[in-house]
Amino acid sequence: MARPRQADPASADSLAPGMPAPEAPVPTGARLAANQMKRMRRIVDAAVELAEQGGFEAVRLRDVAERSDVALGTLYKYFRSKEDILLFALDEEVSRLEQGLVARPPAGETPFARVVDFFRRTSRALIGRAPLARAMIRALTGTDELAVKVALFQLRIARLVAAALRGEPPDLAAPLDASAGSARERAAALTLMHVWFSALVGWSAGLHGERSVVDQVRTAAELILGPEER
Question: Please, what is the average pLDDT of the chain?
Answer without folding.
Answer: 86
